[in-house]
């Protein structure tokens, strides 16, 4: 009888853990849907409102700057007040960002529209920690799968975000996309409701002696994880941001570019249903290497032609490569810190990653306008080579569990 009770208790704990992971999956999906929608239309709105067309991707760039900047205060909030309070604040930021974007479109003011990128970026930055929350609620054996499953919430976002753009962009004509941003403002409200049902861990214990951040930053495992994630995310963002602009230059409409972004987003997140198993079987570094190869194939397809099929194939390869690189790097980050260091290590990691993404978002429009599509694609090859070097040659002396 005692053994039966123990088994029932363990089974109940496992069911509760998987329930929490599923809820985090839907929270991630709702928060990502607004970002996917913004990617599909942000550069086009910026292009239509900006007098200087080289600034078309400035709102997306500022959104990534805000995402980077959010990592530090988010880390403090998570450490002191817990995950729930931090995630609710992120949902509030996304809500305010969507309404400010809508106001900028209604006023026809590029700078008001750009201002919406700041709260939207803060919300997106905080939402990046859902994958870390999944690792914290999961058992050690289930952790890689929990991370990849929560990231797979982007599949729903990939399907829903562009479809929302297509069907709501003309609701308040002639204010193109005004209805879309008003609809996106509802998503963080739904996310906040789900968060009330998730059992999240308490703030991590404070170490008796604080570990200096510089010591974490010097660890080979941290450098490999953060550097690889930064290169993977930066390469993806550089090419993805300019794709709607290049398609517009080739004569494709909003619907076509939204479809390409949708296929790309599905490719980004759908592997989450099995990436965790692949990492558990082959190791994070092997999966990251596969992602680098997929990104290189994306470049080869992109420079080969500019038909609709070329754009779809290139962006699908880009999405798959991002998933393998980013999920592998997130798993590898766990080798770089002890439990009491997790918030500090995660905050530093996201600051580096989204600082890189911000630079690529701003540079994407300028490089595309000044040099063109082919040079923009070829520019990512050195970054991929750098990521490969980090993956192969920076290894931890002793693995440390996250």
TrEMBL record:
Keywords, alphabetical: Membrane, Transmembrane, Transmembrane helix
Domain Major facilitator superfamily (MFS) profile: 220-402
Protein name as catalogued: MFS transporter
Pfam families attached to this UniProt entry: MFS_1 (PF07690)
Coiled-coil stretches noted in the UniProt entry, renumbered to this chain: none
Origin species: Falsiroseomonas selenitidurans
InterPro entries given in the database record: MFS, MFS_dom, MFS_trans_sf
Spans through the membrane: 23-50, 56-78, 85-106, 112-134, 146-165, 171-195, 216-240, 252-274, 286-303, 309-330, 351-373, 379-398
The keyword Transmembrane helix is annotated on this UniProt entry: yes
PROSITE patterns named in the record: MFS (PS50850)
């Amino acid at each position: 009888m005692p053994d039966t009770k123990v088994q029932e208790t363990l089974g109940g704990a496992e069911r509760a853990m998987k329930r929490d992971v599923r809820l985090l999956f839907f929270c991630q999906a709702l928060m990502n849907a607004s970002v996917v929608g913004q990617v599909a239309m942000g550069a086009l709105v910026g292009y239509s409102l900006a007098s200087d067309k080289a600034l078309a991707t400035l709102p997306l760039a500022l959104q990534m700057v805000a995402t980077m900047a959010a990592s530090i205060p988010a880390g403090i909030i998570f450490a002191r007040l817990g995950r729930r309070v931090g995630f609710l604040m992120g949902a509030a930021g996304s809500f305010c960002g969507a309404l400010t974007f809508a106001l900028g479109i209604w006023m026809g003011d590029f700078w008001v529209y750009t201002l919406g990128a700041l709260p939207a970026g803060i919300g997106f930055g905080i939402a990046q920690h859902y994958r870390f929350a999944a690792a914290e609620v999961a058992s050690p054996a289930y952790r890689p799968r929990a991370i990849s499953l929560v990231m797979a919430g982007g599949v729903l976002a990939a399907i829903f975000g562009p479809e929302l753009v297509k069907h709501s962009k003309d609701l308040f004509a002639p204010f193109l996309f005004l209805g879309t941003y008003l609809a996106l403002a509802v998503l963080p409200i739904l996310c906040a409701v789900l968060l009330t049902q998730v059992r999240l861990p308490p703030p991590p214990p404070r170490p008796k002696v604080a570990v200096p951040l510089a010591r974490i930053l010097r660890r080979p495992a941290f450098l490999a994880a953060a550097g690889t994630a930064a290169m993977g995310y930066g390469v993806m963002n550089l090419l993805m941001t300019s794709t709607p602009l290049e398609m517009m230059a080739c004569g494709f409409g909003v619907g076509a570019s939204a479809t390409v972004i949708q296929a790309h987003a599905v490719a980004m997140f759908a592997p989450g249903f099995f990436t965790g198993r692949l990492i558990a079987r082959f190791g994070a570094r092997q999966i990251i290497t596969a992602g680098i190869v997929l990104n290189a194939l994306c470049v080869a397809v992109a420079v080969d032609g500019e038909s609709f099929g070329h754009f779809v194939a290139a962006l699908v390869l880009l999405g798959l490569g991002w998933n393998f690189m980013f999920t592998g790097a997130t798993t590898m980050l766990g080798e770089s810190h002890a439990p009491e260091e997790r918030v500090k290590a995660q905050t530093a990691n996201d600051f580096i990653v989204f600082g890189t993404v911000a630079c690529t978002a701003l540079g994407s429009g300028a490089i595309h306008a000044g040099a063109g599509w082919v040079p923009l694609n070829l520019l990512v090859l050195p970054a991929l080579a750098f990521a490969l070097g980090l993956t192969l040659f920076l290894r931890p002396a002793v693995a440390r569990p996250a």
